Amino acid sequence: PDAFSAARAAEKASGGRISPSRLESYFSCGYMQYFSYILRLRRREEAAPRSTDYGTILHGVLEKFFRVYMERGVDEQEVRPLAEKFFEECIAENVAVSASADEPQTARVLVRLKEEAVKVCSALRVEAERSSYKPVYVEQYIGGEEIPALKADIGDGEVELRGRIDRVDALDDKIFVVDYKTYKCAKFKLDEIYSGMKIQLYL
Fold it and tell me: Nearest Cα to 120, choosing from 60, 200, 37?
């Protein structure tokens, strides 16, 4: 399989729209892409958190934190109370985690995760303060009116590349894309990029 065949399959199934996540799914497992994006099958919801739930919580905290940072700035003394407040909000918004938050194993994980959320918010705030680039978008959808989809010619047709960016920092006419990763496979591996399994950031 190659990028063009994946794009053609997406074009036929979804009216010419495709996302980096969908391409990664295709290259990882064609069946997974078919079940997830064409049949739109979903995992059965269970009252038990998965590792992806914890990553979602951290992403949520960072989104809320930098929305405040963009609106009015955040002082160093505000980092912990804001991060802890947003952490509790994100837990409440996650059914699987909130349902098991009182269980000993989940509770221990959440204690460590809350401290990690505070540290990450603190470190990224310091980085933003030191940089000439400043956050202008968080959780920004690519493919809407504000930022239109990227159109690509695939030879016998055209596809629109859509998706969502964790954060975009800007300096004049230059931009810096920030993609939050909370798992081991975030490491740069050329073979995974070449095979199309880890291409989100580069697209």
Answer: 60
CB burial of residue 98 (10 Å; 0-12, 13-18, 19+): middle
DSSP state of 34: I
Distances in whole angstroms, Cα of residue 110 to Cα of each of 13, 47, 61, 93, 164: 40, 16, 13, 14, 26
pTM of the model: 0.71
179 close to 201: Cβ distance less than 8 angstroms: yes
Summarised one tens digit per residue, pLDDT across range 109-152 is: 999 999 999 999 999 999 999 999 999 999 888 887 787 777 77
- CB-based contacts of 113, cutoff 8 Å, min separation 6: 54, 57, 58, 87
Q: Which two tokens stand for residue 28?
A: 């990882």
pLDDT in tens, 55-64: 899 999 999 9
The residue that leads in pLDDT, 127 or 27, is 127
Strand partners, 164: 141
Residue with tokens 């070449």: 194
Check: CB of residue 19 under 8 Å from CB of residue 161.
yes
- The rounded distance, in Å, linking the Cα atoms of 30 and 36 is 10
Query: 3-state class of 36 per DSSP?
Result: helix
SS3 199: coil
Of all helices (H) and strands (E), which one includes residue 142? strand 134-142
- Give the containing element (helix H, strand E) for 150: strand 150-153
pLDDT tens by residue, 174-191: 988 888 876 555 566 666
